Amino acid sequence: MVIAAPKRIKQIKFGLISPKEFRKMSVTRVITADTYDDDGFPIEMGLMDTRLGVIDPGLRCKTCGGRAGECPGHFGHIELVAPVIHVGFAKLIRKVLRATCRTCGALLLTIDQKKKYVEQIKTLRRMGQPIEEIVTEVFKEARKAGTCQYCGEVQQEIKFEKPTTYVENEHKLMPTDIRARLEKMTDEDIEVIGMDPHNARPEWIILTVLPVPPVTMRPSITLESGQRSEDDLTHKLVDIIRINQRFQENREAGAPQLIIEDLWELLQYHVTTFIDNAVSGVPPARHRSGRPLKTLSQRLKGKEGRFRGSLSGKRVNFSARTVISPDPNLRIFEVGVPLEIAKELTITLNVTPRNIDEVKEYVRRGPENHPGANYIVRADGRRVKITDKNSTEMADLVELGWKVDRQIKDKDVVLFNRQPSLHRMSIMAHEIKVLPNKTFRLNPAVCPPYNADFDGDEMNMHIPQTEEARAEAKILMHVAENILSPRFGGPIIGGIHDHISGLFLLTNSKDKINKVDALELLAKSEIRELPEPAGKENKRPYWTGKQIFSQILPKGLNLEFKAEICEQCDICKGVDCEHDAYVVIKDGVLETGSIDEKAIGAFKSVILDKLMKEFNPQIACKFIDDATRLSIRGIMRKGFSFGMDDEYIPPEAQNHINEELDKAGDKVEKLIAAYKAGELEQLPGRTINETLEMEIMKELSKARDSTGDIAGRHLGMDNSAVIMAKSGARGSMLNLTQMAACVGQQAVRGERIKRGYAGRTLPHFDRGDLGSQAHGFVRASYKSGLSPTEYFFHAIGGREGLVDTAVRTSQSGYLQRRLVNALQDLEVQFDGTVRDTRKMIIQFKYGEDGINPMNSDFSKPDAVKRIIKSVTGKVKE
Amino acid sequence: MKEKEITGREFKPLDHVMVPRHEIIDEAEINKILAEYEIVKEQMPKIRVSDPVALEIKARVGDVVRIIRKSQTADKAVFYRLVIA
Ligand SMILES: [Mg+2]
Ligand SMILES: [Zn+2]
Ligand SMILES: [Zn+2]
Ligand SMILES: [Zn+2]
User: Which end of chain A is more exposed for a tag (fewer CB within 10 A), N or C?
Assistant: First the structure.
């Protein structure tokens, strides 16, 4: 197969444009600074000459004959009376001047040196490598020569005064002088400084002709008052032409040298600011209002410039943005949309025999009566706005072939997005639910893929406008299709925080739930029948939490796994686990074990994984909806809170903790004493100082851990923080240890805190104090409160964390951009190969194995094992 | 390239555990592969003749090298590279 592709760019050449070329590409010389005559017509050879292109409707371009919009615009030129320097190349001019002879223009190197450098440059170019280093060396070597070895001229020191002044021996070099010197350079010498004499001769940097950009890139706007307002570039060109004319008049009149020089400098200023209005050392040219002008460089540079602002960035219609807030009563694939937004955003309907009645009803309802319609497009393409007044009338007029912009309404598919869009689940298709109030509402179970929380996050919504787009969104991007992450082959949508605590409380307790409570728990799911009661108490039937949870499990679900709360005992007792950590689900009934993060948590849920892979997305969706609602009922039934009291530790335990910390303090003192006495045993590969630091750190972290253990003994499963930590809902035992027992060592770059004053961290300590307190060990707990010095060290350690995240996000963001740019055009083909746009093979089989990571089992090659187990397992029964 | 003196103590990349098996394949097989993927030789991934492994198996420009890698998920993964200058 021959590679049929669009035309390829073979090469891009960068160079300087010669004055000759400037004149060749120009359609007219511009001589007058005026733009329009009294009748409002562009003046010939003025800045708005119709040969430069047209912007006014009705006029035709004198160059190409095109109307406004058709004519691309054409360049003109200004003949500068005296040459000026191009600011962008001022530094290059300095280097070239210093490297060449002031009389004969030769590059100040020996013939042998030149030959050597040209050879090196050629080799580097051939290998596609940068030549900067060699060129820098050339300039450095050439500058060393005191006299010209070709004509014997003694070279002078050239001073460069920013931005465009060169002084040789107290004598200012005029652009004409510089140009004359550069003109003398031979082609061979130009090659040695890394330039291509055919494409960029150094004297072309000194401008003698200035191109005038086409009118189309500096259009004037007519204000409401009828006054014309010109583009900043036009303003700048007016300045240039005026000074150019004055210069010429003065020179012809034989004005004194001083005046000529002043005018020359003024011309240089205007050309400089025309190119770049933010050069250091040059006051920026300003508008009458005081606003700095936006000239050529400013159009390209920066975030709002042509590259980052216009080419890489796009803005769109049919979108909305607002703050998000949670609504656990929505289904996971729904999004709550404020009524105000729903009334503004539309979908275009083509009127057909099948929908004409429906469409008429929308039009009749008008724009204020959601769901109504906002616009009608008649068969001839005319757009008519629907108002409250004309809605009935318009509804009667609607014909086949017309188009109607209908307001979005419930069940419409929209795209929902949260930046930064780091993976494909950052944009998913949701179904609309129009709701009162002003925020987007979403089920908290879809927070993980968006990485969203509700501390003020905003999200964007986009309305697909064609049937194709809607179909694609629904099939490929629907939330239900994205429960599994292609990143690790497990569910990324699932229970978080209270969802996990709630189900854990429900399934881990021995509670006897009466009928009223059981029905209350299941009220929000579509369960209408309770199973056989687990037993009777006082003649009244009761159910267990496990039974209630089983109601939302689909029939036919079989699973066995260890829960998050499993203590990883040496010998697992399986079903008889004393922590109830061994989960067995048979045919949709939870027989033993507790439901926690491992069962329903986003990222870890084994149940969701199974439902997605062996059942279908709809069942998985339903399960998440039911599980999250049940868990919230479950957590509300018991009540779940955390306060200072939950950090309480009995006095004996507190004493015990203090003893541990005292012991650790003594050990540290002993280590320091040993170090000072020179008796400390040096660790291999470490200095004696490092050894001491490591030993101290080890001792203190051991102490912190043991205080945590002591505290842990008094904080059992009746403590809500422990429940959250153990079930994986939120927080860790370390967090709890820090709150209740001891905060521990504060570190900067993994070491104890050493910075601060001379020989000490704070003035509260003696110089040279190596003790734990003086270097950031926080003995207190958050509950007991930190001492002032401890508090300060804690702030130091905390700040490092903040700085780290700030630095890491920017670095990883840039890395991600580079990766995406490099890989975005690669595609898995139908034959399983990965190819680029040229159909070149990148991989013969996608990822070596041809497996879609989304369907792999948590990225492990377990699919086969799973199948065998499920088959053999069934055989046994 | 200048022929180096053979001492018998040279490091052989292929002996290293991290270097997968490389072998030159014959014309018939090349054609089979090209037909299978509906490609021309130039669309294959490349390897330089100067690559240490290419030197070791004495590959020449225009040859196609089969690389058999061990894979955690696929057991064995086969890859082809066209030898270029
Ligand atoms: Mg936030
Ligand atoms: Zn034109
Ligand atoms: Zn000279
Ligand atoms: Zn266990």
Answer: C
Task: Say yes or no to pLDDT of A301 above 70.
Answer: yes
Q: How far is A838 from chain B (nearest CA, A)?
A: 8
Domain at A16-75+213-219, CATH homologous superfamily: RNA polymerase II, clamp domain (4.10.860.120)
Q: A334 versus A164: which is more confidently predicted?
A: A334
Q: In angstroms, rounded to a whole number, what is the distance separating the alpha carbons of residues A337 and A288? A: 46
| Cβ contact B77–A845 (<8 Å) | yes
The answer to whether B71 contacts A849, with C-beta atoms less than 8 Å apart, is yes
> Hey, are the CB atoms on A848 and B80 less than 8 Å from each other?
no
Q: Identify from B25, B39, B42, B64 which residue to disrupt to test chain A contact, counting A C-beta atoms within 10 A and taking the largest count.
A: B39
CA angle (A556 as vertex; A550, A562 as ends), nearest 5 = 60
Is the per-residue pLDDT at A462 higher than 80? yes
Note the pLDDT tens digit of each residue in A524-538.
888 778 888 888 888
Residue of B nearest to A861 (CA): B73
Query: How far is residue A172 CA from its own chain's centroid?
Result: 50
Report the domain count for chain B. Answer: 1
Quick check: A682 pLDDT over 90? Answer: no
Predicted local distance difference test score (pLDDT) of residue A877: 34
Q: Which residue has the higher pLDDT, A303 or A829?
A: A829
pLDDT tens-place string over residues A640-657: 999 998 888 899 989 999
* Third-level CATH fold of A644-798: Topoisomerase I; Chain A, domain 4 (1.10.132)
Give the start-end residues of each E strand in A142-205: 158-161, 165-168, 171-173
Q: Report how many helices (DSSP H) and strands (DSSP E) chain A contains, helices first.
A: 26, 29
Task: Give the residue numbers in B contacting A (CB under 8 Å), as ranges.
Answer: 37-40, 43-45, 69, 71-74, 77-80
Work out the minimum CA distance from A840 to partner chain B, whole angstroms.
4
Judging contacts by C-beta atoms under 8 Å, the chain B residues touching residue A833 are 37
Q: Tell me the backbone φ, ψ of residue B83, rounded to 5 degrees.
A: -80, 125
Evaluate the CA torsion angle A560, A561, A562, A568 in order and state its sign. Answer: positive
Q: Which two tokens stand for residue B53?
A: 């492994």
Q: Is the pLDDT of residue A236 over 50?
A: yes
- A498-638 placed in CATH 3.40.190.10: no
**Residue A169 Ramachandran class (φ > 0 left, ψ -120 to 50 alpha, else beta):** left
Task: Provide the Cα torsion A737, A742, A748, A750; round to 10°.
Answer: -60
Is pLDDT at A578 greater than 90 in this prediction? no
The pLDDT of residue A750: 87
Structure tokens at A473: 């969104």
**What band does A79 get if pLDDT is binned at 50, 70 and 90?**
very high
Does domain A319-482 fall under CATH 2.40.40.20? My reply is: yes
Instruction: Please tell me which residue of chain A has the smallest CA distance to B38.
Output: A1
* Sequential DSSP letters for B49-71: TTSHHHHHTT--TT-EEEEEEEE
Element (DSSP H or E) covering residue A671: helix A651-676
Identify the residue with better confidence: A620 or A107.
A620
Is B42 part of any domain?
yes
Per-domain residue ranges for chain A? Answer: 16-75+213-219, 85-206, 231-300, 319-482, 498-638, 644-798, 827-860
Ligand nearest to the CA of A146: 3
How far, in Å, is the centroid of ligand 3 from the Cα of A93? 18
Residues of B in contact with A3 (CB under 8 A): 43
Across chain A, mean pLDDT equals 89
Please tell me which of the candidates A844, A850, A856 has its beta carbon nearest to residue B79: A844
Residue pair A518/A512 in contact (Cβ under 8 Å)? The answer is: no
Please indicate, yes or no, whether the overall pTM of this predicted structure exceeds 0.80.
no
Residue A630 alpha carbon to ligand 4 centre in Å: 26
Q: Which residues of chain B have pLDDT under 70?
A: 1-4
Statement: residue A356 has pLDDT above 70:
yes
What type of residue is A531? P
